Please model this.
Amino acid sequence: MNADPQGVLTGSHYLDGDHACSEGAIAAGCRFSAGYPITPSTEVVERLASRFPRVGGRFLQFEDELAASIAVLGAVWGGAKAVTVTSGPGFSLMMEHIGLAAITEVPVVYINVQRGGPSTGLPTQPAQGDMMQARFGSHGDYKLIALCPNSPQECFDLTLQAFNLAEEYRVPVLVMLDEVVGHMTEKVVIPAAEQIHVTPRRYTTKRPSDFRLFEAANGSLVPEMVKAGDGYRFHVTGLTHDERGYPAMNALAQDKMVKRQFAKIEKNADKIIRFEEKNVSGADVVVVSFGITSRIAERAIQLAREKGARVGSFRLITAWPFPEKQIAELSKKVKAFVVPELNMGQMVLEVERVAAGRCRTVPVPHAGGTVHQPEVIADAILEAVR
Model:
C-alpha cells in the first residue's frame, strides 16, 4: 500500500465511502480542502488532513461552513483544485457560495453526505433529502452537476470524476452520497496513477491584453481560466457581469450570461449523464433509484420477480442534469415507474414530469433514519402492475 509520486494509494483496500471520497479527491489532483466538522461527513476531511501533508496538500478547519465554502473558491482562483465537505445543515449554509461558484464558473467540488432533516435532524442516520436543494438550493437560475455514488468504490470513482467534470465545464460539481454509503466499508480498487485520467485546468495562452475571464473559448461554451499572480488583471464578482467580469447589471447581459451557462451543461448533457440500466427491455415496471436505495431496490426487484413481475431498474448516477431523454423513452414502453427514495418525494417529481402522463409514476417515500425494507418496494412494484 505504497503511495506513488502523485499520492495515489494504488491497490485494493477496504475503505468506507467517506475515506474513498478522500482518495478520489487526492487522485484527481486536489491539494486544498477547507471544512468544518459535521456528522456523517467528517471522516472525509479527517483523512484528507492526515494524507495531505504526504502529498503536498493542505487542509484548513474553519470556524463554520460559511467560511469553509468561500475558502475553497479562493483556493481555486489561487490555482488549486479544491473540495469542501458537509452534511444537511452545513449544506444549507453553503448555498450562498454555491450560487457564487455557479455565477463565477468556479471548478470546485462539494461533497454532501446526507442525513435526516430538516434542521439538525438525524445527525448519525441516513436520508436523501437534499436532492432538490442540490439543484435549486441557491437563488436564481444556474446549472451544475450532481453525482450519486452507491458504494465506496463509486465514492472513489465519482469523486475523481467530479473534479474532471468541474474542470471540463468550469462548473461546481456536487457528490451526493448518504450516511450509509459514507460509513459502509467495502473493497475499493485504486488504479495506478498512470491509469487514472485527470483533467487539467484549462488555462489560457492568450496575452493579458487579449484575455476575458468569462468569454467562451473558441469552439466551446466554456471560458478558459487564469490564476492570481500570473500577471492577469481580472475581476470576479457575484453581480451579473460581462465577459471581462465587470458588473453589467442589465437585462441583455443577464440574458447572455445565464443562457451560455445553461447551454454549456445542456448541450453536453449526453456526455455528462451517467446511469445504469438492468433488464428494462420488456419490463412492465422500472424502478428508478439512486444511492443506497438502489441497493435495497435490487433485493425488492428480486422479490417481485419471484412473484411473476416483469421489472427492471434504472439507477441515477448523475442526478443533475437529469437523464430526461432516457426516462422519456422508457415511459413510452412501461406501465409504471416506481421511485423509492429516502425522502418524502423529490426525484420522483422529475420522473413524473418527464414521463408526462405516458405511464404511472409511483412514489415510495421514506422519511429517513433507516433504509427501506425491500418488501415495501416489492409491494409497490406488484401494485403498479395490477
In short: The first strand starts at residue 11 and ends at 16. The two ends are 54 Å apart (CA to CA).
